Amino acid sequence: MTLGDRIAVLKDGEVQQVARPLEIYNDPRNTFVAGFLGTPPMNLLHARVLKKGKMTFLVTGDMELAVPQEMLTSVRALQDKSFTLGIRPEDIDVTTMKPKGNNMKIRFIEHLGNELLLHFQLDNQEILVTVSQDKCFKEGDIVTLDIHLERIHLFDNQGNKIKG
User: Fold this and answer.
1) Residue ranges of the domains in the chain?
2) How many C-beta atoms surround the C-beta of residue 75 within 10 A?
3) Is the domain 39-155 a CATH 2.40.50.140 member?
4) Per-residue pLDDT tens over the stretch 44-62
5) Whole-angstrom Cα distance, residue 102 to residue 28?
6) Could you say which of 113, 121, 129, 149 is the most buried, measured as most Cβ atoms within 10 Å of its Cβ?
7) CA-to-CA distance for 128 and 23, rounded, in angstroms?
8) pTM
9) Is 111 helix (H, G, I), strand (E, B) or coil?
10) DSSP 3-state assignment of 31?
11) What is the per-residue burial (b if ≥16 Cβ within 10 Å, else e) of 106-144?
């Protein structure tokens, strides 16, 4: 994040966000900014809320993420609304397959020197995950994706960050 002390992200001549680079990276104001800053870019996935008994889940494709207590209020407000779930590639851990986990097949691997970029397909959405180059994964492996829920971002159907 050596761009400067403060940067402005513009889209079509309009300022989207002005802040310190790390603040923009960690707290993007909208989906444009979220996808603009960072390589690889943030995963932006269509999602919905699902209630099962007393549990609340964020669902994207076949992936279900149990919502922690501290996020329940903001997530429940999204019930019956379309929204986007943002997850940075480094905020997803990849482990050997767990019987009840979010299991996915590695579709493609890019070797980037000190890390690997794993490509997954979730319905018609691609998920990118970065892992250390010393991990022994290969294309076709079925693995479990563990999302760091405290690091996810939620955006409304206009692409604006949902506070909470």
Assistant:
1) 1-38, 39-155
2) 20
3) yes
4) 999 999 988 888 999 998 8
5) 26
6) 129
7) 22
8) 0.89
9) strand
10) helix
11) beebeeeeebbbbebebeeeebbbbbeeeeeeeeeeebb
